[in-house]
């Protein structure tokens, strides 16, 4: 008896260690919080209930969160539909309104009144009205005997029925998504507003301060925010843009806390994380960090080096390539961090341990043994088998992405194929569509830059991708040009008809018959045809052949993990649906003897200040405010807070997400993760994974003191929860 008791007494302790190690991992579905998370959240300091976060019957926090344009998150911060998101999320909109005279990227933009707010055709904001578990109906009649294609078509049929029968208003939409690799399905009723206007943005020297050098890095000093407003029809419902539209009256908007953060404060982040892969087997993780990441990084390394060299010497090229450079560098840097983080934390080792435990549990139970016996080995073997094609596929994708001439040639080949398919009489129309698409790309295209990128990338491609995956046609051309990137590139860039928009247009203006004949003589198109044929036959075919089986086994493995590991709480991988993640404001040790603090201040901005530098310049007005310490109600202890970190589990798509305090007040704006923790998409580790947020007080300081947009501050609801004056109040 004593012994037994002793055994049981141990359990809670083990359970606790388990929880504390994983307490901040997870992107949870808001409608399931009361079942899965509420208790833990309260234990960590949350002062509101799950129903205050997600409710169907009353305004709740979820009614203040939107998917911004489908790629970022935004939140509503006033009773007049004012929306806050990141500067890098609003970047395109800001850029489109900018000209040489009114360069809003450089100088910032502030509408002085609602009439000056700028419409952005195509930009949307989507609210989630309700979420329903439709797993049972979606998987009705779906049995293990169906193959993947049959399974999908059975599900599609079920989903159609669900769509037809679902209750929704005419102005609402239905979105259905698979979760847990297709083991569960959820339906989202959404409302998408289509009139979203630009209200304000700081200059890039604040909104993008530190740019690519500081990207993914802590300590950070970026004021990464921009402000929009949602407009609705007179009935407050979604409407196409019209100047008669009125500011949206939201069901809820976020009060803003001026009390700041302290170490160990509870925080949550509410938003639309894009994609994670937390339940892969070890071979898949190995493939990612030892196969795919190195390949992609190698290609981008080479391309970025070339582009950077040109951008530093030539102002025109800098403007043309800035956005491309930033987006290429963003993933490149993340992948480097991911490889390093997985290595540093023994991520693969940890997977192997989890798999050993999984195997043990399966072996110990006859039912599991019968259903899941060989599953893990088969799945691991499939990933291993598919590795060469997967890596070659990455090389191919990167080659086409960075070598724009090949990208144009690829588009041209598709145009010819489509014309053959649809009939020559459609050529004129299809040609015009193609030309319209590439015209803006040519505006930001420079032959000298692209040629040097091609030299570097062709050398890598033909060296790294095995010749039997390249194929005879392309390899033939490679041999004709002495297996040399420079010779191959020179021939293409000296002779191709695709090196400028005008030449391309003239070439395509010939009759379809001549175009399809001459295409073979054009060195760029000829190489591209060879590369493409080789890709289709030797990379994509074997890759595609394995996918259905990988998907099937991955789905079974997901289910098996949930069945077998009863002590573990599972959250679904991110899939651009609304999630909540929670954690604590906390520093960390990136490496031996180094400790990172939780927050930065304007002092750090001034430490980084490099006059005239395109990443680290500081506007004069901000320097003045700093010199006078003129921080108004936003400063704390004589300093101006700028950014802070916490252990919320976030990913791409969470940019612009609100960071909330224990009461659901806005305390910050999520925009990035730390270098050591970018691996969190495949290997979350609470000891070093941190999300980075702008302190909301810095945002307000910039709006109020720097931009003088006091009318915006007056729209907000500012609260002091720590001083005990204002408990959470609903906005409406
Ligand atoms: N790393 C952040 C994210 O993945 C910020 C990217 C924008 N900033 C930049 N310097 N490229 O989106
Ligand atoms: N910067 C990312 C975004 O734009 C966020 C992240 O990956 O942490 O969504």
Automatic annotation (TrEMBL):
Keywords assigned by UniProt, alphabetized: Aminopeptidase, Hydrolase, Protease, Serine protease, Signal
InterPro entries, sorted: Pep_S46 (IPR019500), Peptidase_S1_PA (IPR009003)
Transmembrane segments: none
Gene Ontology molecular function terms on file: dipeptidyl-peptidase activity; serine-type aminopeptidase activity
Enzyme class name: hydrolase
Originating organism: Chitinophaga niabensis
Secretion signal, residue range per the UniProt entry: 1-23
Record's protein name: Dipeptidyl-peptidase
Similarity-based family: Belongs to the peptidase S46 family.
GO BP: peptide catabolic process; proteolysis
EC numbers for this chain: 3.4.14.-
Purpose of the protein: Catalyzes the removal of dipeptides from the N-terminus of oligopeptides.
Domain of life, per lineage: Bacteria
Classification via PANTHER family: PERIPLASMIC PEPTIDASE SUBFAMILY S1B
């Amino acid at each position: 008896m004593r012994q037994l008791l002793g055994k049981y007494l141990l359990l809670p302790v083990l359970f606790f260690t388990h929880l504390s190690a994983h307490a901040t991992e997870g992107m949870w579905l808001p409608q399931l919080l009361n079942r899965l998370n509420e208790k833990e959240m309260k234990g960590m300091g949350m002062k509101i209930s799950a129903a205050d976060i997600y409710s169907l019957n009353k305004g709740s926090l979820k009614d203040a969160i939107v998917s911004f344009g489908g790629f970022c998150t935004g939140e509503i911060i006033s009773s007049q539909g004012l929306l806050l998101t990141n500067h890098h999320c609003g970047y395109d909109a800001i850029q489109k309104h900018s000209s040489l005279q009114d360069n809003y990227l450089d100088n910032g933009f502030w509408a002085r009144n609602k009439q000056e707010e700028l419409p952005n055709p195509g930009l949307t904001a989507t609210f989630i009205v309700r979420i329903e578990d439709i797993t049972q109906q979606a998987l009705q009649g779906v049995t293990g005997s169906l193959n993947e294609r049959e399974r999908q078509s059975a599900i599609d049929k079920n989903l159609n029925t669900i769509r037809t029968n679902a209750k929704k208003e005419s102005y609402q939409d239905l979105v259905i998504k698979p979760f847990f690799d297709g083991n569960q399905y959820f339906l989202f009723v959404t409302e998408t507003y289509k009139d979203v206007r630009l209200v304000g943005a700081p200059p890039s020297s604040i909104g993008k301060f530190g740019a690519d050098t500081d990207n993914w890095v802590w300590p950070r000093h970026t004021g990464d925010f921009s402000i929009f407003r949602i407009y609705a029809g007179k009935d407050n419902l979604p409407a196409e843009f019209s100047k008669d539209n009125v500011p949206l009256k939201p069901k809820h908007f976020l009060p803003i806390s001026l009390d700041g953060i302290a170490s160990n404060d509870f925080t949550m982040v509410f938003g639309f994380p894009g994609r994670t892969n937390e339940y892969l087997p070890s071979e898949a993780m190995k493939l990612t960090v030892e196969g795919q990441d190195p390949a992609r990084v190698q290609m981008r390394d080479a391309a970025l080096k070339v582009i950077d060299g040109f951008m530093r010497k030539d102002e025109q090229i800098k403007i043309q390539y800035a956005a491309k450079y930033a987006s290429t560098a963003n993933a490149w840097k993340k992948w480097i961090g991911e490889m390093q983080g997985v290595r540093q934390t023994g991520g693969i080792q940890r997977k192997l341990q989890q798999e050993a435990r999984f195997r043990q549990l399966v072996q110990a139970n006859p039912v599991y043994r019968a259903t899941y016996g060989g599953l893990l080995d088969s799945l691991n073997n499939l990933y291993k088998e598919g590795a060469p094609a997967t890596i070659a596929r990455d090389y191919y994708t990167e080659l086409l992405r960075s070598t724009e001439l090949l990208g144009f040639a690829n588009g041209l080949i598709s145009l010819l194929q489509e014309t053959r398919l649809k009939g020559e009489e459609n050529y004129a129309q299809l040609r015009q569509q193609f030309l319209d698409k590439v015209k803006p790309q040519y505006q930001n295209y420079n032959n000298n830059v692209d040629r040097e990128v091609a030299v570097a990338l062709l050398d890598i491609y033909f060296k790294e991708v095995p010749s039997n995956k390249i194929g005879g046609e392309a390899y033939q051309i490679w041999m004709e040009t002495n297996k040399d990137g420079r010779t191959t590139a020179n021939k293409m860039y000296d002779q191709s008809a695709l090196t400028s928009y005008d030449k391309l247009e003239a070439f395509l203006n010939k009759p379809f018959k001549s175009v399809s004949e001459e295409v073979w003589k054009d060195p760029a198109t000829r190489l591209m045809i060879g590369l493409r044929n080789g890709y289709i036959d030797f990379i994509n075919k074997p890759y595609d052949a394995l996918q259905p089986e990988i998907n099937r086994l991955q789905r079974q493995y997901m289910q098996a993990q949930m069945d077998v590991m009863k002590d573990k709480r599972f959250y679904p991988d991110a899939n651009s649906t609304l999630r909540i993640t929670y954690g604590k404001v906390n520093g960390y040790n990136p490496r031996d003897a180094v400790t990172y603090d939780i927050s930065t201040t304007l002092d750090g901005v001034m430490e980084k200040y490099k006059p005239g530098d395109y990443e680290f310049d500081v506007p004069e007005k901000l320097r003045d405010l700093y010199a006078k310490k003129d921080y108004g109600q936003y400063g704390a202890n004589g300093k101006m807070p700028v950014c802070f970190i916490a252990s919320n589990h976030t990913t791409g798509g969470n940019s612009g997400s609100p960071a909330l305090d224990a009461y659901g007040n806005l305390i910050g704006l999520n925009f990035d993760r730390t270098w050591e923790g970018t691996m969190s998409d495949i290997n979350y580790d609470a000891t070093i994974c941190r999300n980075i947020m702008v302190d909301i007080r810095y945002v307000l300081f910039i709006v109020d003191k720097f931009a003088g947009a006091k009318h915006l501050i007056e729209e907000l609801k500012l609260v002091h929860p720590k001083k005990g004056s204002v408990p959470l109040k609903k906005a409406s």
